[in-house]
Amino acid sequence: MDSAKRSADAATPSSTPSSTTPATTSSSASASSAAVNDPGHEGADNTSRKAITRLLWLIALVGGLAGLFVFGITRDPNRRDNIDSVLTGRPLPAFSMPLFDRYHENYGEVLEFTANSSTSTPTGQPMIINFWASWCGPCKDEAPVLERTHRRHGDDVLVLGVNTQDRNQDNARAFLSEYNLTFPNGIDENSRIGINYGIFGLPETFFVAADGTLLYKHAGAVTQAVIDEQLERMLPQ
Amino acid sequence: MKKLSVKHIVIISLLSIALAGLASAQDVELNREVFEIARELRCPTCRAEGVAESSAPISIEMRNIIAEQLEQGKSRAEILAFFQARYGDWILLEPPRRGLHLIVWIMPIAIGLLSLGILIFFFRRWHKNANAPIEADAADLERVRMEMRRSANMNANINTHLESGKP
Amino acid sequence: MDMSLSLSTLGTASLTLAMAVCVYAMVAGILGARRRDARLQTSARYAAVAVFMAMTTAVLTMQTALLTDDFSVQYVANTSRLASPTWVKVVTMWAALEGSILLWAWLASGYAALAAFVSPNNALRNWALVILNAVSAFFISVNALVANPFTLVPNPPLDGPGPNALLQNHWMMAVHPVLMYLGFVGLTVPFAFAMAALITKRPGSEWMQQTRAWSITGWGFLGIAKIAGGWWSYEVLGWGGYWAWDPVENVSFLPWLTATAFIHSVQVQERRRMLKAWNLLLIILTFALTILGTFIIRSGIVSSVHAFGDGPVGPYFLAFFLLITLGAFGLLAWRWDQVRDRGELDAIVSREGTFLLGNVLFLAMAFAVLLGTLFPLFVEAVSGDKVTVGAPFFNQVSLPIWLGLFALMGIGPLLPWRKANHQKLIHNLSWMVASAILAAVLAYIFGVRKVYPLWTVAFAAYNFASIALLLDAGVRPRMKATGRGFWPVLGQYAQESRRRFGSIIVHFSVIIMALGVAGSGGYRVDEQVRVDLGGTVALDGNYRLEVVDRFMEQTPARISAGVIVNVFNGNRQVATLRPRINAFGADQQPVPTPDVLYTAWQDIYLSVAGTVSPDQDFVVLRVVQSPLVAWIWVGAVIMGIGTVYCLLPKRRLVPEPARQTALAGS
Prior knowledge:
The complex is a heterotrimer. Chain A has eight helices and seven strands, in the order H-H-H-E-H-E-E-H-E-H-E-H-E-E-H. By secondary structure, chain A is of the alpha/beta class. Chain A has two domains: 2-77; 95-234, 3-Layer(aba) Sandwich (Glutaredoxin), CATH 3.40.30.10. In chain A, the strands form two sheets. Chain A has a five-stranded mixed sheet. In chain A, strands 1-2 form a two-stranded antiparallel sheet. In chain A, helix 1 packs parallel to helix 2 (25-37). The longest helix of chain A is centred in the N-terminal third of the chain and has 33 residues, at 42-74. Mean pLDDT of chain A is 77; it is low at 1-41. In chain B, helix 2 (32-38) packs across helix 3. The termini of chain B are far apart. Residues 17-23 of chain B have low confidence and may be disordered. Chain B has two domains: 6-94, Helicase, Ruva Protein, domain 3 (Orthogonal Bundle); 100-164, no CATH class. By secondary structure, chain B is mainly α. The relative contact order of chain B is 0.06. By secondary structure, chain C is an alpha+beta fold. Chain C has three domains: 1-169; 176-414, no CATH class; 524-630, no CATH class. Chain C is built from 20 helices and ten strands. Chain C has helices spanning 2-35, 38-67, 74-79, 86-91, 97-118, 123-146, 176-199, 206-210, 212-236, 247-272, 276-299, 313-339, 351-383, 391-411, 422-445, 451-482, 486-496, 498-523, 629-647, 656-665; strands at residues 525-532, 536-538, 543-554, 559-569, 572-577, 580-583, 591-593, 595-598, 602-609, 618-627. In chain C, the strands form two sheets. In chain C, strands 2, 3, 4, 5, 6 and 7 form a six-stranded antiparallel sheet that branches. In chain C, strands 1-10-9-8 form a four-stranded antiparallel sheet. In chain C, helix 11 packs antiparallel against helix 12 and helix 16 (451-482) crosses helix 17 (486-496). Chain C is globular. Chains in contact: A-B, A-C, B-C. The interface between A and B is medium-sized, with 27 and 28 residues.
């Protein structure tokens, strides 16, 4: 046994001494197999080069994963679930929506939005359609912004609010009173209008051109900057 | 069964109010086909649930829409296309098989075939190892012969010792 | 006021102490190993126990805070509620992120302490302990440095929101998370020993043999935990299902897949001295996937129903994951050539051949599931598009792989090592394939027409035949040799070959569960029905529901309203079910609690849809009839029994003739 070990040692200069401890016969087997696979002295350099290649592959793979994950955690959490609307550039679906009582006097009981007609929007003007609910926090942030837009540009742009997914209308009415919204708001009773418009969260705001096609859908609370940017596109210069 | 007191009635009413919005929406009877189609759609307002599993108001409404359209005679493909036209590919629980999304369909098969290929490669090598005699070069053979001669000499010496009776 | 100050301080102090002692244990362990200093090594071992005691103090402090409603401790203020029953307060400890980390860290330190004193004294132990302490140190540091549950709240509120409603209404909350963490932490031990083997350059079978019990126990806990989680979802969520391919479910499934591959391929190393490097890779991969899973769950990068939400821990976990992956795989890559062995395979058709193929299949499934889970993130990173990868994708890629695994599971145990005898192989296969075809034909005649259920039935018969052949091969020769009857010989065989018998039980349980999945997945019937109070509705099969009345229930923690429904099979009433809706406090959404009738052949599952109100004389129920679902839960119990059986130590039996001679001689 001793002589076998000595010859194994002599034949495999590349194997480290600690791997040929007598306790594990398997390692002496691997020492002799190393003799079969790596005869000669270039074995040591060869294995180093192979090891470095393997390490480089590993670093590349882990680096790719790391890049993906860093992208994942540095995304803006508020925009994480947003998706662009598939309706962009296309005519929006028609709907007929009953309005809240307080708007009956000025706007009628039902607001009709029919696409594909000569005056596609109810007033022939571009529109800002905002979907909201009384329990939605960001909706409260954007309500004053929308009201201001209506007051300033109400002659050129129709601002329309759609109350959707609200559990009861009293909360919605309280919301309207609290923010004193003078632009027309209607009730989307069973979320059908929301589904037709591809709503996946609240609030969402649709910027509609005069011919009824969608210019841009904004998910999340809409800011003055966004409105100004879209108004430039919607209104004739 | 507890008797309903005023407090209980108030509480039940509060619960009912809380869910009143769902009441009318959920009075619909839905058959199994509705759920089978719903199992292919994603609930838009939920974090990661399907329309068949979720109890969100929008899922309830989507199930009702599916039921209506089935009654109108629409097919499964038409109903899925209806929602796809409004939400895009994202609403389908199965990723589409085109463009960049082909990766997720093809890669499992590709990796499976690749692993099988690697496995076959190793099988071949190990099979060869099993059948190949362990190679030794001339130096090793010479050493083995030396050792054998030496141990043969040692045995011979031991035998002569024993035979001669020397201690 | 004094009391509350000290609980928060005590908790933080315990965490800090645990952290410090853990770092000391690592340093002492490293120095003790390098200098071969026995005193330092012993010091490191005792330090591990000290860490566990400090963590136990922290856990007890948290429990005290929860049970005494101490809202000056931040975690209690954020997660607990005065009105919760005692058991809910106890489990609230792991109902949210910081507390769940506390539980994990405590269990990790416990395992490290146990390993310190149970492991045999050899060169591997020191480094393994260093690794175990490093992992404990990480989890303790998450609490101590990043997300401290014991932070003092200067103006404590009078009451808290309570845990998530879905976590309060079932006792499984007390069981499933603990089982999961026992699984994850249990698998850390073989990983630590594998790293020790790499560091000390002893890649032989030592590290594997020492950790066999740890590996199987961890694997067992993880598997049972997954199925328990599925049962919990079934009982609580209201849609009548148990597995939704949700991202969180997926990432905790991955380590189980690689661990299953691992516990099989270590047998190839034991018997044939092959795959040393591969086994090291597998166990490192298992641990890396565990950390990856916990990162994905707690970082918010993938949206999920189960996610703990995002917070500051995300980058911290990512850093640890990258450290582990680069460090462990890097070391393996560096030492690969010194670790790998020659490898000899006489024939592909052999036990080792099936194990290798099985490994490939398990890893392919793990890869496919990981790819599907991360794909939406990838697409968004590359093109900004949003895509969903849901159940239809995962079912399509995993079901064929499961069928392949069933095929291997049947033939594998029947094949000998090295090379199969072709005659015996043909003989065995004929029996198995014939059973499969017969079963499939019978099933087809009896109405099973869908593809996957048919294949599952076929493979079930194939595997039952395999088990029969295995037992026959084990029992018949002994019967001939000893002349005893079948049952005594079977008992003796079961006691002598615990591993084989245990694995037979486990494989049997897998088939039972597969049949349960095929039945409930392929043939479930979902309906939503509207029934007047006092009315009846007919269901599939011979079943009938009779809605009796509304009911109302109130406990300190919740208010519930529901319906009482009698279930009839034919003309016989078989059960009374009480599905209800619960409100757990004002801020939370009402959640339904379904009620289930479990029978051997199908479950009748009822959940309230819509409302239960006094002025409504009807009720809308969601009804789910799932065939064979109960087989999954029963199968899980059998798998647990089989796993325990595998771990029982072998009984040393003195052969009869020798005993007689010994007795005669004395």
